Amino acid sequence: MLYKIITTGRKAEIEFNGRLTYSDYSLFRQITDVIGQSPHQECVFNLSALEFIDSAGLGMLLLARDKIQECRGNITLLNPAGQVKKMIELGRFDALFKIIIDHQTH
C-alpha cells in the first residue's frame, strides 16, 4: 500500500494506492497516528486508486473510524471501485461511513 496525506486545517485527505491487506497494518498505524489529532476533524479516505482490500483492511478502516470518533470527527470513503467497492458493500460499511461516489473522477 502507498498513501499520501494532504492536510488543510481540520480536514485531512488520505489517498490510498495499491492493496490494503494485513501486511499493511504497521504502515496504516502511521495514518491513524495522524488522524484524530484535532477535535471535529474531517477525514476523507480517497480509495479511487485502491485496487484490493481484504478483511484485515476493512478492520483497519474501522480502527481509523473509532480513533477519529473519539475526537468527534468523521471519515468519508471517497470513490471505492471494483473489488474494494464490493467488499465495502458486503461489509455494509454504508451504515458506518459516509460513502461518496464522484462519477466525474472516473
Approximately how much helix is present in the residues?
25-40%
In the CATH hierarchy, what is the architecture at level 2?
2-Layer Sandwich
In percent, how much strand structure appears in the residues?
25-35%
Major sheet, described briefly?
5 strands, mixed
Mean pLDDT: 91
* H and E order: EEHEHEHE
Write up what this structure looks like.
By secondary structure, the protein is α/β, with parallel strands linked by helices. The protein has one domain: Transcription Regulator spoIIAA, CATH 3.30.750. 33% of the residues lie in helices and 35% in strands. It has a 5-stranded mixed sheet. The longest helix has 16 residues. The radius of gyration is 13 Å and the shape is globular. The two termini are 21 Å apart.
List strands and helices in order, with pairings:
Layout: E1 2-8, E2 11-20, H1 25-34, E3 42-53, H2 55-70, E4 74-78, H3 82-90, E5 98-100
Parallel strand pairs: 2-3, 3-4, 4-5
Antiparallel strand pairs: 1-2
Core attributes:
106 residues, Transcription Regulator spoIIAA, 5-stranded mixed sheet, alpha/beta, 35% strand
